[in-house]
Amino acid sequence: MLCGMSRTTRHVALASLLAFSMVGCAAAPDAQSSTSGTSTDAAESAAIEAVPGTAESTATTETGATTPDQTTGATSNSGTGAGASTTAASGQNAAANPAPAAPKNLVPIGQGPNRENFERLLMDLIYTYETPSAETTQSLEADLAAIQATSAEDFAVAQSIVNNWNTVFANPNYPLCMYGGGDQATELAQTGLRDSPTHAFVVLGYELVNGEMTEELQSRCDAAAAAARSFPSAIIVCSGGATGMNNPEGHTEAGVMRDYLVQTCGIDPTRIHIDETAQDTAQNATNTFQILRNQGIQTITVVTSSYHQGWVQAVLNAAAALSIRDFGAPIAITGNYSVDYPLTEIAPGTEDRVAIEQVADVLGLPKTDMQALMWS
Fold first, then answer.
1. Residues ≥6 apart with Cβ < 8 Å to 131
2. Full-prediction pTM beyond 0.85?
3. Of 173, 190, 198, 252, which residue is the least packed, with the fewest Cβ within 10 Å?
4. Domain total of the chain
5. Are 325 and 159 in contact (CB under 8 A)?
């Protein structure tokens, strides 16, 4: 299981659309296009996938409220029971990273004049993926043009969503960097990824069983631990709330992940930042990017299961595009680190619709509208 393994999925040819979506916006290098599965230069953090930062001794949001980040001594409902906690070293990245960006106070996309245009855009991404044709591509082009005519900021988000979709989810040759099972992330090291205090390994959670990690979630943590050993300046972000049946103590995915990384894998707890509130991938993405901004992170590697990379990157990329639009804080997905597991959590063939529904959630589009459009 080595870097460069391609994810098998259905192919869609959208070259003309990709060219269109570059009109009116500066084209940056494609951070996802490297055949190694990662970028070698932080300058690519402003890439078009924008897939879309400062360490402080207290964790506050851009507006002053408490963040989901619980590395500052907060008690965690973790796998070792209530009362488990970790304390972060204050100012870990402060010397290297700027202060968190202030919000721009733009109208949220889900409440703005482009709401219906984004709904059409997301549905046309599904149609172009499932039944590709010149007509569906033209519809997408019309959606992008309508968004651009209304708002340049919104158009940048739409462009990023479309470009990422084409580059990752809809690309049968998107290279996965597969975890080989060792204590070191030799596969990632071979891609040219550089150790940096402004890089983070974002580890996606998985539903708990009886309040405990599954083998699949443990494997994701093993991959993250290997990455942390090979890149000692980077941080780890774990996201996931209390999930699963028969979990009376309210253990959280992020809590048990942190405990495993610290107690079993020997990772310094001050490097681990957690969000224990997310209940789905969309909340994972939104809360994770809040942590990333507060920690001054500029680039991330997504650590999850192989089948999950395509759709979770679509969701994370939407949060990253909003990070630029709403906070002026670019944070780029520059690579992936994947564990080899089959798809079991959703019906095969529905990944595109699940991904788009979660992208819509990140954008704040009305759930009832999207569900009616997608599943009726």
1. none
2. no
3. 173
4. 1
5. no
Q: Does the residue 209 lie in any domain?
A: yes
By the 8 A CB rule, do 132 and 139 touch?
no
Q: Is position 265 within any domain?
A: yes
Question: CA-CA distance, 42 to 47, in Å (whole number)?
Answer: 10
Strands of the 332-339 sheet, one edge to the other: 272-275, 235-239, 199-204, 299-305, 332-339
Residues 6+ apart with CB under 8 A from 312: 204, 281, 284, 285, 302, 304, 355
Q: Is residue 301 assigned to a domain?
A: yes
- Domain of 292 in residue numbering reads as 72-102+174-352
The structure tokens listed for 146 are 């309508």
Sorted by sequence, the CB contacts under 8 Å of residue 19 that are 6+ apart come out as none
The CATH number linked to 329 is 3.40.50.620
Look at residue 223 and tell me if it is in a domain.
yes
pLDDT in tens, 293-333: 999 999 999 999 999 999 999 999 999 999 999 999 999 99
